[in-house]
Amino acid sequence: MRILFTGGSGKAGRHATAYLRDQGHRVTNLDWAPSDTPGIAHLTTDLTDAGQVFNACRAYASPDELEPGTGVPQYDAIVHFAAIPAILHRPDNETYRINTLSTYNVLDAATKLGIPKVIFASSETTYGICFADGEVKPDYLPVDEEHPTVPQDSYAMSKVVNEVTARSFQARSGIDIYGLRINNVIEPHEYREMFPAFMENPALRRRNIFAYIDARDLGRMVECCLQTDGLGYQVFNVANDDLSVSLTSAEVIERFYPDVPLKREMEEFETFYSNEKARRLVGFVPNHSWRDELAQ
After folding, report:
1. Which of 20, 106, 147, 215 has its CA 20 to 30 A from that of 36?
2. Which long-range contacts does 163-169 make (Cβ < 8 Å, 24+ apart)?
3. Which of 110, 90, 100 shows the shortest CA–CA distance to 3?
4. What pTM did the predictor assign?
5. 2-187+212-243+272-287: CATH, from 3.40.350.10, 3.40.50.1100, 3.40.190.10, 3.40.50.720
6. Where are the domains of the chain?
7. With bands split at pLDDT 50, 70 and 90, how would you rate the model's confidence at 296?
C-alpha cells in the first residue's frame, strides 16, 4: 500500500513506519522534523495549514514516481499520528489548537480527495485518568471503549474532539476511519531503563491504568487496521496483554482499586486496559512483553 503517515519522526511514529516498511508498504512521512528511519520518504509539512495538507495528500513521494508518466499516484491510506504528544510541551491552548486543527485538516483532505481509509492516534488520556488533577479512578475495570471519556486537560480534550470530528467525517463520507486509543508507548530500550522502578513502586503506573503498549506492537496494530476494511468508524484501545507491574491483577485491585466495580473476572496478569475489541475486530495480537524483554 502507498501510505501517508503523519508524525513518523516521533517516538511512536518511528517504530510504526519501520514496521509498515518491513511489511512491504511504501510510506511517506509528513512531519516538522525529518525522519531518520531508512526507507521512509519525507515531506516537511505544517499540518495546521490546510493548503499544505491537501497538497501533500496529492503529491509525488519520490523521484521514481515520475517515471511511469501516469500522474500523481493515489494514497491508499493515511495514518495520522502527528500531535503535540502530551501536556506541558506547549501552552494548553496551543496544544489544543494544533491537535484539533491538524486532525480536521487531515480528515477533510482524505475525504475530499477520495482516500479510502484513515487511522488516527487517539489516547488513553481520553478516559480522564492520566492527566487528572489529583487521583481519578476508572468507573469500572477493565477499562473498555464504552468507558466515559471526560478528561480535564487540554491534550486529552483535543483527542476527544478529534474522535467526534472523525466520526462526523466518516458519517458524511462512508470511508473507514479508525481511532487508536494508544496507551503508554514503550520503546525496546526503555524496558531496562524504566521497568525496574515500576516493579519496586507499582504506584508509578497508576495514571496509565497499569498498562503499556510496546512500540513495535503499535506498528502491528496499525497494520491490522490497514488490512481490515468495512468497519466504518471505530475506536480501539491499544495495549499489551499484561500489566506493567509484577503484581497480579488481584493484588493491584486490592491495593489500588478496592472499590472499583469489575465487569468480569480478570486473568492473573491481565491488563486493565482492555484490548479485547482490537483482538476481535481486527485480529490484533501483541508479540512483546516486558517479562520477555527483561529476561533477555
Report:
1. 106
2. 163/122, 163/126, 163/235, 165/100, 165/103, 165/104, 165/107, 166/103, 166/107, 166/118, 166/120, 166/233, 167/233, 169/107, 169/108, 169/110, 169/111, 169/118
3. 110
4. 0.97
5. 3.40.50.720
6. 2-187+212-243+272-287
7. confident
